[in-house]
Amino acid sequence: MFLDEIERIARISKNLFKDKNIKLLSQFDADGISSAAILVKAFMRENVKFDLRILKQLTSNEIKKISVTEKDILILSDFGSGQLNMLKDIIEKTNVIILDHHEPFEYKHENLYHINPLLFNEKEMSASIVCYLYAKFLNLKNVDLVDIAIIGAVADSADEKWEFKGLIKKILEEGELIGKISVNRGLRFYGRNSRPIFKSLAFTFDPLIPGISGSEPQAVQFLSELGISVKEGKEWKKLKDLTLEEQQKLASAIIMKRIKTEKDASDIFGDIYTLLERPEELQDVREFATIINSCGRTGNHQIALRLLLGDYSAIEKSWTVMEKYRGMISSGLNWIKNNPKNIIKTENATFILAKKNIHESIIGTVSMILLNSEIIDSSKPIFGMAYSGEDKIKVSARISKTLKPINLKSIISKTAISVGGEGGGHPSAAGAVIPINKEDEFIRIIGGEIIKQKMV
Ligand SMILES: [Mn+2]
Fold first, then answer.
1. Do 253 and 235 touch, CB atoms closer than 8 A?
2. How far apart are CA 25 and CA 301, in angstroms?
3. Ion ligand 1 — residues with CB under 5 Å?
4. Which three-class secondary structure state does DSSP give residue 424?
């Protein structure tokens, strides 16, 4: 049913493309940029005119700035479903195609083509997967964009615990079949192909390595205690360079550490996806996704799009961007550790009041890392709050997916509206923008909403 609908809309799109210009808008995170890259390539293959803009969020303000006539088709990827109530005027004017996976607002119109797996009770999938399926119905050649689809899916953690299921698993197999992707079981640590091992360990927050995540000196000491040398001659050894025996030694030592802190020990293994046709530094999907995410969130969309579409002249620049981005995150985390007064722990939730101290574009990532850390209670939802511009607060809410679900999206959008803001997202990861003077009121109302949901 879902695939039939995509096929139908792809067929109609081909007709629309004949005499209209495309205005494509996409989200700035790795999933949104991957979605944009897939669509850009597909539109090039269709020989249609298009322009692309990458946006942080599709707010009512941004929607006001969209100017379209009946000669345009507006295409939105990785947002749009949750903003349909604000898009009605545009939809009256011309055709709108939405390729999204966020909680949809129910709305139908003859000008609107709405592709969202949630409308068909499909399992979770990223926007990049939705765009890939659409692109493939436009032209079967677009099957070669499968690796970009997987990058977006990994970035949006559609592979909970590093294992894809359902439709995405089929797509992954498609990637293997055409020789673009290989899948192996292994230690799911960051940068296995490209980083010194101690950096891999220190940069890995999920799975958390107690005492080592976030600390390079501790990682170095840990490895030396295990008798694993960090260098091979003059070269830093990488995770992939370890012998099987060394890998086992490392794995059991980490499992021991995790057992002591009552973390699930088997959690450290997962599927490792390798992109066989990419340069070595970009072959690990997770690392590629991190690069795209850091470029997207720091306004370096061009670099991200070029790398995804196979122009590697920007690779050096992307390292610089990523180091800067990583620096922002670790200084954000340090700020929280040094300012515990700004962590508000209530009975039902944790709130981080970052104010101007953490940039709004990373507050979601920082909240996610905190949720996996020992600093806060991971059995409660976390709400990271950072100033956005002069008069707004960006709120990023996250909840551990393994918990009995509370629908954060419905809680946060209801509360945001009640204080004069707006919000949306997914049940386990949602966001909002609220007026700056409503911080206290927002926290108070959220508490009540969580209790209400728990009682249902
Ligand atoms: Mn997404």
1. no
2. 12
3. 31, 78, 127, 156
4. strand
Angle at which helix 2-19 crosses helix 30-46, to 10 degrees, equals 50
* Domain coverage including residue 362: 339-455
The structural domain count of the chain equals 3
Give the start-end residues of each E strand in 154-248.
181-187, 231-232, 235-236
Query: Do both 87 and 128 map to the same domain?
Result: yes
Q: Are residues 35 and 149 in the same domain?
A: yes
CA 138 – ligand 1 centroid, Å: 21
Q: Are 204 and 190 in contact (CB under 8 A)?
A: yes
> In which residue are the tokens 């960006």 written?
394
102 Cα: distance to centroid of ligand 1 (angstroms): 7
* Whole-angstrom distance, CA of residue 192 vs CA of residue 189: 6
Q: Based on the fold, state whether residues 307 and 343 are members of the same structural domain.
A: no
Are 95 and 58 in a shared domain?
Answer: yes
Q: Is the pTM of this model over 0.85?
A: yes
pLDDT at 173 over 90: yes
Does one domain contain both 364 and 423? yes
DSSP letter string over 236-303? Answer: EPBGGGS-HHHHHHHHHHHHHHHHHTT--GGGGEEEEEEETTS-GGG-BHHHHHHHHHHHHHTT-HHH
Q: Are residues 343 and 310 in the same domain?
A: no
What are the pLDDT digits (tens) for 220-249?
A: 999 999 999 888 889 999 988 888 889 889
Residue 236 shares a structural domain with residue 349: no
Residue 31 C-alpha to ligand 1 middle, in angstroms? 5
